[in-house]
Amino acid sequence: MTGQTGVPCTMQGRNILFGVTGSIAAFKAAGWVHALAKEEAQVSVVMTRSATRFISSLTFGALSGKQVYTDMFAEGEGEAMAHITLPRSTDVLLVAPATAQTIARLAHGMADDLLSTAVLACTAPVVICPAMNSNMLAHPATQRNLDILKELHYLVVEPASGLLACGDEGAGRLPEWDGVREILLGLFADNDLAGQKVLITAGPTREPLDPVRYLSNRSSGKMGYALARTARRRGAHVILISGPVQLDPPPEVDIVQVLTAREMEEAVREHAGMASVIVKAAAVADFRPKNASEQKIKKAGADLYLELTANPDILADLGRKRKDNQILVGFAAESNNHEAEGLRKLKDKNVDLMVVNDILGEKTGFDVDTNQVTLISHDGVEQLALISKEETANRIWDCVISLL
User: Fold this and answer.
1) Amino acid 83: pLDDT
2) Dihedral sign, Cα of residue 218, residue 223, residue 226, residue 227
3) Could you identify which of 32, 97, 291, 394 might form a hypothetical disulfide with 131, taking C-beta atoms 3.0 to 4.6 angstroms apart as the criterion?
């Protein structure tokens, strides 16, 4: 059972032309180049003359492992016609930080330095990340120039708000890398989930015993969040119902925060009817204390007997009430008999795809970034290799696409 695999949504092997302009935020750009290099992207950095006043080209050369370009008229090896050859071989041109000066130059088609000339010669997507003082950003001239860039089909990323280097507070900060990374990966992804409304549950639930104690499990939510990120990259409208986790929200995903299994059941019931695909990746607690105390239970004289009651089986309920043409994916955390348990749950819970996870593996259990799952459908069984949770998520979406 293998889904149709499209273009992989990874940075590996991607050619990124990275333009850096004269802003204090250039030091953040160095971190972005480092992150891209760690993901095995091929990064070529072009710096404006002003950018070299803030950070050395040697820094970007060391981080990228490649030549850094600074001069339109340099005659060194590899620099002749760089304004033509560099954009010709790139998958995306990223300008970060983009100053007000650079934005004005690009908006009016000026080509008086290496970066602006490369942008004009580029036929790949161009992503602009403005960064400047909030008053400069709000100036009508800057806003008009940003509108022109959007009309020219450049992708302009909204600046973040907060404390600026100058001491002012407001909009104008360079966005965080996580959000920009998602934009780039979205450009590389197939848009094969466009038009689909995807509902995903993730993370654990907490079942209160008293105001300070609860029953829960070791789920980190990483698999569910990876599913949400990758589905959004592939064009889906994603609703993520999340239990309590220590993870940043995926960009451009609608998040519903819940705490208990019954809260998750209520949220799922509210949104399930509108979804074309439902993925139940949450580790919902099977039981809860039958009687939760309204006051903290004291150690002295406490009854050590804890009576439990069953929580609702959300996945089974979805299987009973699913709409025609609605794809339902379940997760099963197992410690043994993986395939047999997966096949049983596939049938008992009336799902299209069951993803079985080995909870005892050192690299496949809780709170790790890798996974090795077994995909079980009515068409057969497929054992995936040990790969990242994002890659696992994409393989799951490949299977969902084939089911759709």
Assistant:
1) 80
2) negative
3) 97
Q: How far apart are CA 229 and CA 222, in angstroms?
A: 10
Q: How do residues 294-313 score in pLDDT, each as one tens digit?
A: 988 888 766 678 899 999 99
* Catalytic pick among 122, 129, 166, 399: 166
Domain 15-187: which CATH number of 3.40.50.1950, 3.40.50.150, 3.10.580.10, 3.40.50.300: 3.40.50.1950
Residue 3 has what pLDDT?
46
Domain boundaries, the chain: 15-187, 190-295+306-403
What are the CB-based long-range contacts (under 8 Å, 24+) for 141-150?
141/104, 142/100, 142/103, 142/104, 144/107, 145/100, 145/103, 145/104, 145/106, 145/107, 145/108, 146/103, 146/107, 148/107, 148/108, 149/103, 149/106, 149/107
Average pLDDT (362-372) is 82
Please tell me the predicted confidence (pLDDT) of residue 4. Answer: 45
Task: Give the model confidence (pLDDT) of 55-83 as tens digits.
Answer: 999 999 999 999 999 988 776 655 567 88
Cα distances (Å, whole numbers) of residue 267 to 2, 85, 119, 152, 320: 32, 52, 46, 41, 17
399 a catalytic residue: no
Contact at 8 Å (CB) between 260 and 288?
A: yes
Closest CA to 100 of 92, 108, 111: 108
**Cα–Cα distances in angstroms (integers) from residue 153 to residues 4, 156, 370, 386, in the given order:** 30, 9, 37, 39
